[in-house]
Amino acid sequence: MTMTKKRLLALLFLALAALPWSAVAQTGATRVPAIDDLLNLKTLGSPQVSPDGTWVAYTVSSTDWKQDAFVTQIWLVHVASGRNFQVTRGDKSCVSPGWSPDGAWLAFTSSRVGDKSQIFVIRRDGGEAVQMTNAENGVGGYAWSGDGRQIAFTTSDVNEKDVKARRDHLGDFEVVRREYAHQHLRTFDVAGALAAPVAGTERTKGKDYTVSSFSWSPDNRRIAFSATVNPDLVQNGTADIYLLDLSTNAVRKVVDLAGPDNGPRWSPDGRMLVFSSAMGNPKSFHANSRLAVVPVEGGVPRSITDGFDEQPGLIDWYADGIYFGASQKTASHLFRVDPTTGKTTRLSQPDTLMLGGASVTRDGRSVAFTAASPTTLSEIYVSSVQPFAPRRLTTMTDQVNGYRLGRREVISWKSKDGTEIEGVLIKPADFDAARKYPLLCIIHGGPTGVDRPTMIDTRTYPSDIWAGKGALILKVNYRGSAGYGEKFRQLNVRNLGVGDAWDVLSGVDHLVKLGWVDPKRVGCMGWSQGGYISAFLTTSSDAFAAISVGAGISDWATYYYNTDITPFTVQYLGADPATDPEIYAKTSPMTYIKQAKTPTLIQHGELDRRVPIANAYELRQGLEDRGVKAEMVVYKGFGHGITKPKAMRAVMEHNLGWFNHYIFGDPLPDFAKPELPRKE
After folding, report:
1. Rounded-to-integer distance, Cα 145 and Cα 546, Å
2. 101, part of any domain
3. CA 262 to CA 257: how far, in whole Å?
4. Contacts with 476 (C-beta within 8 Å, 6 or more apart), sequence order
5. Residue ranges of the alpha helices (H) in 72-175?
6. Got the DSSP string for 347-397?
7. Contact call for residues 27 and 13 (beta carbons, < 8 A)
8. Short-list 497, 515, 494, 516, CA closest to 505
9. CA dist., res. 600 & res. 629, Å (int)
10. I need a surface site. Which of 125, 268, 551, 553 has the fewest CB within 10 A?
11. DSSP states of 404-426 as a string?
12. Is the model's pLDDT at 17 over the cut of 60?
């Protein structure tokens, strides 16, 4: 081979290796991962590029079986050399990394000292972390001032002494929707806090509002923040934009619109604010939000993203425009919008990129972000903004070397009413189009979630184990999913369950018609909204051999009167149950309970406030009354999500055992008397 050809091949290899979305063969894949293999995989997130672009801080979460926790620590990577090293250690998580403006310090929050989250800083070049705050009620969010001399943070206004005195005399109780822990702003001088931790100077107070997101003005004299009337989630629509003058602590409202207005950021010259806004539309759960601008001194907010048909996630305002991230079907990208003309430009590529957590340098020229692909785990990348040319800085995908995993691809089909639906199809590594396979449908939550074709699933539903066992897995982006525009997101308004079921069943039919699926061996499962759709299918369809309902709604009236987000129900169904009982009956699984036939596993967190556990008991009893095989497992101490490794192991084992029996013919395990490993 000539030297020229060798150089060309070498250059081609390097070019392909640099692309996160290029196909990578699973060399040496020898075994299917077990449940503990999945749970032991480390995951990364929260990339924060240093102001000058030299470093990227990020978090890595790992499983600590001894203390039964997922523990997060902070890592650093040097952009030029690619050198990675761990910055924080210990039993307690360290999260929310944030650079000082000069890049010398890296702040983070942790409960490593005491039980409350506090702010710490550590030097970029290592050393011991320094505790900066000793806020009595802990720290929520925080932000450095532009000159690096101050840090602002939020903390609760609860008086712990009063709470303890009442508890000691009267026991523990709560007066519903009367007692709230309001969040308020405090600031402190960095120089003083480096000498000893501080409680911070109170900047806002009272019960008129509770602070959420905030940002410093370029001159460090003011803070813009968003706030609702109280912390109750039903008050989400009251979020407005306020301005705090640090010289007097005077607060005035800048934006007062119906619907939520959140996340203010300053223009570089300090004269304008940009923020996320419903623009007066109270139906914010399923309608597009906008980015809007308003003069700091007040005025009528002006939307600048009316022409963008998705939800823009605001990043910040730079010299060349306002940056935001957004989904585009199963992809996600970085965008820039001109605040004067509203012209929006997509900055990232290729079309299939799944970009997340974008962090931009001070000059707006470089960006760090996470991205996963069908052949890579989520990794940290850096790129110039223009031209966009990503370079990978981490090697998390090495963890799955040797595992035989399913192959991901995006497919589409027509639903019952002609709507085009997309989904992620996972095929066995040795897929043969001439064979018929069992099919397992996995339905995401939300409903404004979205499934993407990312490598490996590590929680709740072990899809790669089933793919290794010889099954197809279909993850349905049903109507209402994010990424497909406002019209699509609203197709299940007053049509929940009904239209969603069309989308799942038509996806099954599509694969059956292709000749790939054995229609007698089809299962369905999902959590939250996916659990609701699974419950709807278990009572209204006989297309499935088995179903698993995770934290799902069984009766919309039961849900409405018990959930912590009642406005969600009214916005999707149009009224409360007393006003329009017909729509609640039409969309509730319990309405169709008499025709239920499908063996159903019900999984629910004991303390779930989002989908209260009454929904699970109602479905279980209804199925039992009809003589339908049902198994219900309650996960003690958990709310809407299962957040500890051992309980997640149980969730996955229960799903694996349930579907392995009804789909593959394995013996049905006794969930009450599970087989346990022998102790050494």
Report:
1. 55
2. no
3. 11
4. 421, 423, 441, 442, 443, 444, 451, 503, 504, 507
5. 160-170
6. ---STT-EEEEEEE-TTSSEEEEEEEETTEEEEEEEEETTTT--EE---GG
7. no
8. 497
9. 6
10. 125
11. --PEEEEEEEE-TTS-EEEEEEE
12. no
On whether both 510 and 643 belong to a single domain, the answer is yes
How many whole angstroms separate alpha carbon 119 and alpha carbon 151? Answer: 10
Give per-residue burial for 78-111: e unless 16+ CB within 10 Å, then b: ebeeeebeebbeeebbbbbbbbbeebebbbbbbe
CA–CA separation, 138 vs 184, rounded Å? 12
Phi and psi dihedrals of 558, rounded to 5? -55, -45
Whether residue 281 lies inside any domain: the answer is: yes
CB 532 within 8 A of CB 589: yes
Q: How far apart are the first and last CA of the chain?
A: 58
In total, how many domains does the chain have?
Answer: 2
* Cα gap 448→486, rounded to integer Å: 11
Please give the residue range of the domain that contains residue 260: 132-303
Residue 423: inside a domain: yes
- pTM of this structure: 0.93
The answer to whether residues 441 and 559 belong to one domain is yes
CA distance 364 to 79: 16
Classify residue 576: in a domain, yes or no: yes
Yes or no: say if 667 and 673 are a contact pair by the CB < 8 Å rule.
no
Characterize the bridge pairing of strands 546-550 and 600-605.
parallel
Alpha-carbon distances, residue 315 vs 7, 291, 334, 364 (angstroms): 41, 11, 9, 11
How far CA 322 is from CA of 208, 273, 301, 359, 482, in Å, comes to: 31, 11, 16, 13, 22
What is the C-alpha to C-alpha distance for residues 357 and 41, in angstroms, rounded to an integer? 20
Asked if 126 and 134 touch (Cβ cutoff 8 Å), the reply is no
State pLDDT tens for residues 455-502.
999 999 999 999 999 999 999 999 999 999 999 999 999 999 999 999
For residue 350, say if its preceding peptide bond is cis, omega within 30 degrees of 0: yes
